[in-house]
Write a structure and sequence with these properties.
The structure holds 2 protein chains of 2 kinds.
Chain A (H helix, E strand, L loop, with lengths): L3 E4 L4 E5 L6 H17 L4 E6 L3 E6 L6 H9 L13 E7 L8 H8 L3 H9 L3 E6 L6 E4 L14 E4 L3 E5 L2 E4 L4 E3 L2 E5 L21 E7 L1 H6 L3
Parallel strand pairs in A: 5-13
Antiparallel strand pairs in A: 1-2, 2-4, 3-4, 6-7, 6-13, 7-10, 8-11, 9-10, 9-12
Chain B lengths: L4 E6 L5 E3 L19 H10 L8 E5 L4 E5 L3 E6 L2 E7 L2 E4 L5 E4 L4 E7 L4 E6 L1 E3 L29 E7 L17 E6 L8 H9 L2 E3 L7 E5 L14 E2 L4 E3 L7 E3 L6 E2 L3 E5 L4 H4 L7 E6 L2 H20 L2
Parallel strand pairs in B: 13-21
Antiparallel strand pairs in B: 1-4, 1-12, 2-3, 3-10, 4-9, 5-8, 5-10, 6-7, 6-9, 11-12, 13-20, 14-15, 14-21, 15-18, 16-19, 17-18, 17-20
Classes of the chains: A alpha+beta, B alpha+beta.
């Protein structure tokens, strides 16, 4: 549940669900997100769910912090069974041309690459949020033994489709972008498609994700 | 066949189509975008008799040089801009906040912004543009919006699908004012910073850095010391948020900002000051001043009233 609602500037609500980052807290955030979205409340511009916060920005010409806070506090929230989340399998090629940071991970984690990939491909991930860049999913949680920090110097260009790890999360670069995550492979799937206005993301908050290893031939044949 | 168009002879530094922006997409990772200086955007459209939410051409520093081919059409430029209209090899100095009737063969040369960053060129009629999520606004990072989400380039054509027949002359007396004091509301991580850091934030001058664009404005100046944690768990951002990363230099989120971020938020620029904030050029000195939420709401009402008043005078 929301522990506290603060103002973030004069045109946004900062809904705080606590400090923990876990699936249970995040599901609460997503429930609120979907419920508020369904209400089509006058004046709301954007609702941004993250691990344990929900930011609601609004048009100050149409509403204000006090009125909107009141509406949110008295809202009935969607039942957890109504979330209609998907299960998605993402093919990933780990060929050396794609796995840019696997050597670094072997050293830091003191594991062989086979073990790193075995752990990764056997894991079921939960999508906490999407964003930063369009459609980028933040997927958790990696095992404690698989957690590494960001690169000290981020790459200027991370290739589109790159699958990266940082701390307890995996992500996918939906298009070429600067970035500092540890890249272990690449997916041929289009994770974000701006031409599909109604449904641009392949992955949404609350979805369940697994990764499946494919060969380089399968990777190149994927889009043909 | 479309016979009315502007040809881009020189593109300018960062020339894009912008309108009122797109909403309800932060959760996907798509920012609001839209015209940076909303007041000047609205005034440009009003001057040429457009609906206020029409797309316009936004330029930064140096604008485009456009050659027109077609039937007579009205244009207006807003901001603080040096520009010329060239007709039959004669240059006429342009004036902001008034309509110009452009004829076949005329050239519009937007030379530079004057101690400001953004300017707007509105065209009286309908530009043939692609809408994505109900907006033409170009987001060059995600390649979303008109022109395949890319900034305008040399030799391109801007096709006019419908010319506004009403070629009235409109004019407004208006001078853009500058601000040095940026009013802010304390951010949700204000207490991450040391007493000294907070004092510096409100008392010292900061300088707008060259590394500023439609995504964000970086500031140079005294470092703001963080005594709690230089990272937070990533969470949603809005325009105007002032983040302070580990290096202690504040960054203000602007209209094309990343939708989530993991740096502590020391403050948020109030809505009433946003249009003037974005016009600050690199090298400008600014100071932050704290206001309460209720004051910020009143200041926005006043700013909005002033904007509406300007619109109604055209």
């Amino acid at each position: 549940m929301i522990k506290n609602i603060l103002n973030l500037g004069d045109a946004a609500l900062y809904c705080d669900f606590g400090t923990d980052v876990n699936k249970e807290t995040n599901i609460q955030v997503i429930r609120y997100f979907k419920s508020i979205q369904n209400e089509n409340i006058e004046g709301i511009n954007n609702i941004t769910p993250s691990y344990n916060k929900l930011i609601i920005s609004f048009d100050l010409k149409k509403t204000n912090f006090k009125d909107l806070k009141n509406i949110i506090e008295n809202l009935s929230i969607t039942n957890i069974n109504d979330l209609k989340n998907k299960k998605i399998e993402i093919p990933v090629c780990t060929h050396e041309s794609f796995s840019l940071d696997i050597k670094r991970l072997e050293q830091i984690l003191k594991k062989r690459r086979e073990n790193i990939y075995e752990n990764f491909f056997n894991k079921e991930f939960f999508c906490y949020m999407t964003g930063f860049i369009a459609g980028m999913p933040f997927l958790g949680d990696l095992d404690e033994t698989m957690r590494v920090k960001r690169l000290e110097t981020p790459r200027v260009k991370v290739p589109k489709g790159s699958v990266g790890l940082t701390e307890q999360f995996a992500n996918i670069y939906t298009f070429e972008s600067p970035g500092g995550w540890n890249i272990i492979g690449n997916t041929p799937l289009n994770i974000f498609d701006s031409t599909k206005e109604k449904d641009p993301n392949l992955i949404y908050p609350g979805d369940t994700i697994t990764f499946k290893e494919i060969t380089k031939d399968q990777y190149h044949n994927h889009n043909e | 066949m479309n016979n009315n168009y502007f040809e881009i002879i020189r593109a300018g530094i960062n020339t894009t189509f912008q309108d009122q922006g797109r909403k309800n997409l932060y959760h996907i990772g798509i920012p609001f975008s839209g015209a940076m200086d909303n007041r000047n955007y609205l005034l440009a459209n009003k001057l040429v008799g457009n609906e206020l939410d029409h797309p316009v051409i936004e330029f930064a520093y140096q604008g485009p040089l456009l050659k027109y081919c077609g039937d007579n059409i009205n244009i207006a430029i807003t901001g603080d801009i040096n520009f010329m209209i060239k007709r039959n090899n004669i240059n006429v100095d342009g004036k902001c906040y008034q309509t110009f009737n452009i004829q076949n063969g005329d050239e519009i040369d937007i030379i530079s912004t004057n101690k400001s960053v953004y300017g707007y060129l509105a065209i009286g009629g309908k530009i043939d543009l692609k809408y994505q999520w109900s907006s033409c606004s170009i987001n060059t990072k995600a390649n979303i919006g008109a022109n395949n989400g890319k900034k305008l380039e040399i030799n391109q054509k801007i096709n006019i699908s419908k010319i506004d027949k009403d070629l009235n002359n409109n004019k407004l007396d208006y001078i853009n004012t500058k601000i040095e004091n940026i009013r802010i509301i304390k951010g949700t991580n204000f207490d991450f910073f040391s007493q000294e850091g907070k004092k510096i934030f409100f008392e010292k001058e900061f300088i707008v850095s060259k590394l500023s664009d439609r995504m964000g404005m970086r500031l140079d100046g005294p470092k703001i010391e963080n005594i709690v944690d230089t990272n937070i768990k990533s969470e949603g951002l809005i325009k105007g948020v002032i983040q302070v990363p580990a290096d202690g230099n504040p960054i203000i989120m602007l209209s094309d900002h990343g939708t989530i971020g993991g740096y502590p938020k020391i403050g948020v620029v109030i809505s009433a000051d946003y249009d003037k904030l974005v016009q600050l050029t690199p090298g400008s000195k600014i100071k932050f001043k704290e206001v309460e939420l209720s004051d910020a709401e009143t200041l926005f009402k006043l700013y909005e009233l002033e904007t509406q008043n300007l619109i109604s005078r055209i």
